[in-house]
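Chapter summary example.
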Amino acid sequence: MVEASCVAGARLFVFFSDPAEEAEVRDWVAALPLARKPEVLPQAQSDDLGVRMRGALDTMLEAGVSVGVVMGSDIPGLTTAVLERAVTGMATADVVLGPSVDGGFYLIAARETDEGMFRGVEWSTETVLERTMARAAALRWACRLDMPVLQDIDTVDDLRAWVRDMGSDTSPLSLVCKEVAG
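The structure predicted for these 182 residues follows.
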């Protein structure tokens, strides 16, 4: 969230899935040390991740943003520079995807959506990115992938892999620390 708040001109949104947790999410957002507070909105109710992502993109686009960006909340290597790169990439694309280590994606940026955008994507598999790119091609959307490959943390093994890689110069934590240090 802090990274997104650092993107110049960004309008921030937090989508919650469980209506029973709305007050808790609103309190959490209100306590964030950000100059610009995110809008807190309910997420589309569905077991299908694609429906929920499309709903978030539709909500942002209907609210007047020129580029909607949906990103995972489990990406420790996500930096302001990565987010800015995604938005900049939209100058020559209809959709930008940030590939994750596991074959999925941690970020999608788009100016429009389509009901077929995520059709046929089997979530939580190593073919998510490939199938999403095929859906973009079927819609005749130019897709950019020149984003860094980042680790998302879905399992304890993912967390262990990320921690193991923290010591290298190209680890997510090293990159974040370098960006913060200037």
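To summarize the output: The chain has one domain: 2-152.
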